[in-house]
Amino acid sequence: MQLVEQIKDNLDILTALQKYTTADLSKLRGKKGNILCPFHHEKTGSFLVDTINNTWHCFGSCATGGDVITLYAFSNGISNKDSIKLLASDLGLKQENKKLSKKVKIDFIKKKTEKEALNFIELDIDRTYNELCSIRNIMKNLIDKTDNIEELEEISNIIDDELYASYLLDCLLNCYSREDYLKSYVEAKEMVKVWQLVLKTEI
């Protein structure tokens, strides 16, 4: 198909990843290598980027791959057929009077909005994690400065909070259940909010 070839000629895999996904390409070395998959949470990169053949493949839970067209389709939850039409439109390529249906347009906008919301949540989770790390360090310093049993009893609530903060941080790093992961995020965010207020009052 001529339009498919035009898309591939005008869009390389790196540009597609940067433009249409949240992929972090900073650790990609050479013309072929693995990065963290932009489509699922992982700690070890299972997402192969091949700039020679302009292809991608996730060897993790996605277990799929392809070219720039399938990348765009998978990223937005649409068919390859609709991916071709949308990419051609985005790249300013001429299409032979092929129009997207109203339903496809509505579905695409909905999925794009959901994806943007998820991206915002992921960024907020990272921010919350870093803020809780800082607060836990403050807790540790307060505990370490305590000299005797009487003082330890007075700050028992801080000791409890420090233990729970450590637990939440561990969950955010190691939870494989999405439900537990989001639950830990919500509780970590609440702890950060409470402690930021406490520290602000103390200053």
TrEMBL record:
Gene3D superfamilies: Zinc finger, CHC2-type domain (3.90.580.10). InterPro entries: DNA_primase_Znf_CHC2, DnaG_primase, Znf_CHC2. One of its GO terms (biological process) is DNA replication, synthesis of primer. Residues 36-88 form the Zinc finger CHC2-type domain. One of its GO terms (molecular function) is DNA-directed RNA polymerase activity. One of its GO terms (cellular component) is cytoplasm. The lineage of its organism: Bacteria, Bacillati, Bacillota, Clostridia, Eubacteriales. This is Zinc finger CHC2-family protein. Keywords: Metal-binding, Zinc, Zinc-finger.
